[in-house]
Design a protein that fits this description.
Structural class: alpha/beta
Radius of gyration: 16 Å
Distance between the termini: 27 Å
Low-confidence stretches: none
Shape: globular
CATH architecture of the largest domain: 3-Layer(aba) Sandwich
Strand order of the largest sheet: 2-1-6-7-8
Number of helices: 5
Strand content: 15-25%
């Protein structure tokens, strides 16, 4: 399955999420790639859109590879493979502090005039443009679960099957359009997959 772009992926996800239309769902994007997608999904479902800030902890010498993730509260998920990738506890702590600083800047940029949307008692749908290790999605779901949503849903266009299994433990429902056995990177499942910059959001 090849998605034309994020817009098409968002449209197809919105179709799958139709049961939540007009139920005031809160659509939370994991920045940056999922932000335009979440806007489209929120419009289709007549819901509210916001961001959930989580950051991956980058492997030493390989910033694209996640060894864990951290949410705004400082809760940290460390993947099983972190030590094998060379991430010592000291390294993880330093990387965590860097990512917390980035999240503080992002929060000021994304929602300067209002605090994060209220989660308690609501249907909450967390959107990403695809999962690889699932680390950031796991952190997002963990952070949101503590805020007592009525229902917590993870929605992604594509993910490896083993990552989906991990994520399922943290969500009430997982919506995924494509779970291929052969998976190298999220971008391989999009014909057009440009980087989304903060300036373009």
């Amino acid at each position: 399955m090849l998605f034309q772009n994020r817009k098409e992926a968002a449209r197809l996800l919105a179709e799958k999420l139709k049961p939540y239309r007009n139920k005031n769902p809160l659509i939370l994007a994991i920045p940056r790639g999922a932000v335009p997608m979440a806007k489209d999904i929120a419009a289709a479902l007549h819901g509210e859109m916001d961001v959930v800030l989580v950051r991956k902890l980058r492997a030493p010498g390989n910033p694209e590879f996640a060894v864990g993730s951290v949410d705004e509260s400082g809760w940290t998920y460390v993947a099983d493979h972190a030590a094998a990738a060379g991430a010592t506890p000291e390294y993880i702590e330093q990387e965590k502090q860097e990512q917390l600083a980035t999240m503080r800047r992002r929060r000021a940029q994304y929602t300067p005039v209002h605090p994060p949307s209220e989660v308690e008692g609501r249907i909450v749908i967390v959107v990403d443009d695809g999962l690889a290790t699932g680390a950031t999605m796991i952190s997002a779901l963990h952070a949101l679960r503590a805020k007592q949503p009525k229902k917590l849903i993870a929605a992604v266009p594509v993910s490896p099957p083993d990552t989906l299994q991990k994520v399922t433990q943290y969500a009430d429902e997982v919506v995924c359009l494509h779970a291929p056995e052969y998976f190298q990177a999220v971008g391989q499942f999009y014909a057009d997959f440009p980087q989304v910059d903060d300036e373009n959001l």
